């Protein structure tokens, strides 16, 4: 039976993201990628294929929904708050030390297959090798079928620069690109049906599940001007070219 919880909101407090006007590092992160794009792109092309060791003994989707206000699994703090439609995961000892610069991926699947989709990806999401320190998934019992999250964007992966000066290292860029390719492949292998991409996001033709948005330089509604700007984001281009 559906769980009735009043006044549901989207809780972003775990991200600890401040206004862009007070975050000068965000500009330098983007400018660094722009100014060094060709060098970074060429170096990434020469890097070897990575293998991701999947975590074992990870919670399934049902256990995630029942994790409560605070739980710890595989080095990740889990939180399923009453007022939030999302279940949050945050790595206790973060690998990435820079300031969040707005880059994130959504994963969209058929709502009815959300348990299977999560179980297919859980070993990767909880992996010690994962480049993603913070991610969240929806609790399908709390989301109406017609709501935006009922048709797509059920997973959100937040990508942070790994260096203390809030720049992306070439290794993290390469690792992130390889990781999202693994996620795409795993969902396809398990026969998961893609959901509807968020109108605010961009994606290349070969991505069936994932999409990208920089949330500090774009909005949720999206329009053609925003989508074109996102396609020109250097981070996105490094993930897709």
TrEMBL record:
Localization annotation: Secreted
> Where's it mainly located?
secreted
Q: Which UniProt keywords apply?
A: Lyase, Secreted, Virulence
Give me the Gene Ontology terms describing cellular component. extracellular region
Q: Name one GO molecular function term.
A: lyase activity
Which InterPro entries has this protein been placed in?
Answer: OspF/SpvC, OspF/SpvC_sf
Family membership noted in the UniProt record: Belongs to the phosphothreonine lyase family.
The protein's name in its UniProt record: MAPK phosphothreonine lyase
Species per Swiss-Prot/TrEMBL record:
Salmonella enterica subsp. salamae
